[in-house]
Amino acid sequence: MSGPRGPEQPSADRPQAVGAGLLDDLRAAVGRYVVPPSPEALDAITLWIAATHLQPAWQHAPRLAIVAPTKACGKSRLLDVLLETVHEPFITVNASPSAIFRSITEEPPTLLVDEADTIFGSARVAEKNEEMRGLLNAGHQRNRPTTRVMGSEHKPVKFPTFAMAAIAGIGDLPDTIMDRAVVIRMRKRLESEHVDDFRTRTDVPFLQAVRARLADWSGSQLEAAAILVPAMPVRDRAADTWEPLVAVADLAGGAWPQRARTACQVMTDREKGNEHDRGAKIRILVDIRGVFADLGNPSHLPTETLLHALKSDPEAPWHEYGPQGLTARGLQILLKDYEISSTNRRFDDRTQRRGYTRAHFADAWDRYCPAPEPVAAPSPGARQEVLPTGPERSESEARARSSPQTPRRSVASVGLPTTPPAPGTGPRR
């Protein structure tokens, strides 16, 4: 990767050289003030900023979810940088949905939403802000207007919702927003990680000059962007979300097409690993699959055995799920949407109890759960602990997996193409 260029403009007869150099400069500018969690995250932020200047070309408006576990992780500073570099920024804290959708026009601004934890931070608060969540979800795709009754004649009026949005807050955003977002998981900066101080008088003009150059370049690329269908390393909604970023990289050329696809693959894989921790309905499927595996994959398990194993895992949320932990009724509610329920069965100990059938989970595991990581085969003669399956299992016998997991794949093994595919060769979805 070439270093940041000087202030001079590259030759206008080499549009890809202009684009690649401009993205290099933008990446260096972002990196002056914030420390993203990875080089891929810095690439993604750079491409997302550039994509905001080409919003008329896109069918989907990816969200940029800037989340962190605590305060002082650089979220606000990143928003400062976005405010001075994105197209037509519209920054808001705790604005009402009506104020936001009235601010979105056919030529949309770029929404910058700070303090999102005050909107979605708890179940009770999030319930009061369902309209905001719906607005942010609808705005991810073009032609999803919201309708309101207006005027003395009470006529329905459609308001556009399509607009790119960066949303910053402590803790994860609602699952439906995270699923439509490029996720940047900010961290506290180490003493060894240095950034420049951000001073309005000197740094705002510098960033605005980068934005002006970006706007000039993107204006010349609008027609090409509108017809470009880039080859994508991911599918479905992840492809919809990342396509504008990869398209910008293909338009810019240089090393950016490959870097964009690497960032896309690495960051979406990382978020797949976090999915079961975000939603209880996904997490319960993953953990039940683990219980069946730990107990030798029996065809059936009594409800009390399954609940005991789930609540015995100290790292799982089930022992704190309600005043008494996860109950049989709570388990049924979590599994209801998958059409999985308990039935009366006769077990090997000749008792008849309610329980769950492993085969009933197979379809849901295949559809909704991350693929289980392969485990190493046990060495010959190795002793493996067999966990009891009856209700007599004591509280001290916490569930433990006996086979070590293989390490995660390296970035080099994710199956990316050795050379970037030519623009416009990807399948249309």
Strand count, sense and barrel status of the largest sheet are: 5 strands, parallel
Helix content: 40-55%
Amino-to-carboxy terminus distance: 32 Å
What is the count of DSSP helices, taking H or I runs of 4+ residues? 15
Query: What structural class do helix, strand and pairing data support?
Result: alpha/beta
Give the topology string: H per helix, E per strand.
HHEHEHEHHHEEEHEHHHHEHHEEH
**Shape by Cα distribution:** globular
Poorly predicted tracts of residues: 1-13, 384-429
Rg over alpha carbons? 25 Å
How many runs of DSSP E, i.e. beta strands?
Answer: 10
Key phrases:
alpha/beta; 3-stranded antiparallel sheet; globular; disordered C terminus
Structure, explained:
With 429 residues, the chain is of the alpha/beta class. 42% of the residues lie in helices and 12% in strands. It contains 15 helices and ten strands. Helix 4 (97-101) links the parallel strand 2 (89-93) and strand 3 (110-114). Mean pLDDT is 82; it is low at 1-13 and 384-429.
Furnish the topology, listing elements before pairings.
Blueprint: H1 15-33, H2 39-52, E1 63-68, H3 75-85, E2 89-93, H4 97-101, E3 110-114, H5 117-120, H6 123-128, H7 130-138, E4 146-150, E5 155-159, E6 165-170, H8 175-178, E7 181-185, H9 200-227, H10 236-252, H11 256-278, H12 280-294, E8 300-302, H13 303-312, H14 328-336, E9 343-346, E10 352-357, H15 362-368
Parallel strand pairs: 1-6, 1-7, 2-3, 3-6
Antiparallel strand pairs: 4-5, 8-10, 9-10
Helix pairs in contact: 1-2, 1-9, 2-10, 2-11, 10-11, 11-12
